[in-house]
Fold:
Amino acid sequence: MSWKIAACMQINEESLKMLSEVGIRGIEIPGALQLNPFKVSREELKRIRELSKSYNVDIVASNVIYPSDFSHASNDELIRRKSIEYTYKIAEAASEVDCPILVWGSGKARNIPPEVPLEKGYERNLQVLKEAAKAGKEFNTTFAVEPLPRNETNFVNKIEEAVKLIESVGSDFVKVMADVRHMMREEADVEESIRLAREKIVHVHLADNNSKVPGMGIINFSKLFRVFKEINYKGAMSIEARLGENSKEELKFALKTLKEATKEVDSTLI
Ligand code: LER
Ligand code: MN
Structure:
């Protein structure tokens, strides 16, 4: 098996230069900032696309796609409509930069406010994902629901919940993603949860248990990669870690750690 490796960061000359030097050929960009259809012009999207091509670093995904003041489950209909309109338009923006995956994380935006009954909140979030399915099909972009820990959201904390949710959307353009750091915290058995979602997983985030780059904590990555190989996972894997002063050295170290781990399971990183 071979997996495309990427790193989560803003796209610009500097980050692309650094990634090229480290040997990472993928980038995952912050959507609310760099694909925001209410703020980012077509010209800017074109510039981003060309920049990524010129460095030969692919935009494999975009995360943090909603601004933090969004609320899909709000009692205010105008606020809910804004989420729906934005969801549709960000899929178009993603297609303009050849970004195939939009990570449906954004814990705050999907949080069910205390004054909203849980069932109603569920329905309202589902409504947004149904729009995502429509937009995804039109612009050939897949939305990937990311289970997030309880301190980030009260809506979808576990893989099992994400699977159930996407099954009720019933679209090839709304799938599941696995963030291994969050899974360590929320899942009773991380490996079994990966097996449970199987072919529904379309994207992966990698960090160590302490949010630092892989290799700086206690996660056994080869053990995890063995399961991704077993389920025949073919998507990309993005390093989504808190980088310190010397991000270049940290990413080099992460790449080395991950390459060793993939080698142990007779796989490669590209
Ligand atoms: C936040 O913890 C996170 O994992 C991001 O991917 C949210 O989209
Ligand atoms: Mn993540």
Observations:
- The domain at 2-269 is CATH 3.20.20.150 (TIM Barrel).
